[in-house]
Predict the structure.
Amino acid sequence: MNNTKQIAELVEPFAGKPGELIQALHRVQSELGYVPLDAQEEVAEIVGVSPVQVYGVLTFYHFFRTEPCGQHVIRLCMGTACHVRGADRVLQALSDELKVGLGERSEDGMFTLEGVRCLGACGLAPVMMVDDEVYGRLDPNKARTVIREYRDNQE
Amino acid sequence: MITLEIAGRQVQAEPGQTILEAAESAGIHIPTLCNLKGLSPRGACRICLVEVTTWRGKLVPSCATSVEEGMKVVAHSARLRELRRTILELLFAERNHICAVCVSNGSCELQDLACELGMDHVRYPYRFPGLNMDASHGKYVVDHNRCVLCGRCVRACSEVEGAMTWGFSRRGVDTLVATDVGSPWVDSKTCTECGKCVEACPTGALLDKRTSVAEQEKDPEVLSQVTERRPRV
């Protein structure tokens, strides 16, 4: 499914530079939206590290995704301020609405739900971002409404 | 030569040597786990902690700290004993270390440490994470439940064998050793089946296939025997 030639092209600027493995993976993710697991050996070969080093980096950093993500990425803040103001209830509402857990993509491929540490908008807690849009002072109902608006706009 | 004091004794050491090496050549024993002769020091397990009096009692891993002129090192004290024991108990509690049903029973460095440090019970509840085993390989098995993440297999594989098959995946409490791209061991394209990882492993996490309880024997010294015979580059 993944295009070996495309991976090779994306990683080419980092060929033979083991220290730039993370940059290479960033490039793959920014172009494809994720780093396909079957691209790991290809990346390792080009960058000049062992396959397990690629796997280690991919699994260590939460930012890297190994599954394709939805059309919209929801980043729900799980930081201290948001936690105190009920991020867990918002998470529950989003999970129920989308029928996914953290880090998963909804069945229709429309949303990926992610938990992040801090969005730097604690005054708006609990807060989430959908793509580049910030939604603050959330409660379960408000979060559900946001999702439904995205769905309505889609139709 | 550098002169320092370890456990109340004057010890001579070469510049660049570690406190552990200096202590060992002077016949002073310091317990270790992740350290293995022939492999680079890692300072991962913290069992070999010592107190440096001349650094205001700072605790440092002796395997990964260089000697210094005039340094005073406490290698054994009530505080160190308690710390080492706590570390050891946390290692036991983190996964599934039940000696009675382990292939390495009787040939295990974790077990030896428990005896040496007088660990008669574990004060923390076992996590029993129920991790997978990978018995896909024809000769060896990895049982993550017995792994202490010392990284000796990882270092043996990259530094001595040069295959770089083993590495770490994930992070924190979820960390696991992994081969290649996390696929089953048998599918590894880099593994040479040399078995150095099994010999280097201090516990029953890496074992020869078809060994049963207490049948696994380990020879970790094989790693330094290999490296010492090699020409220096």
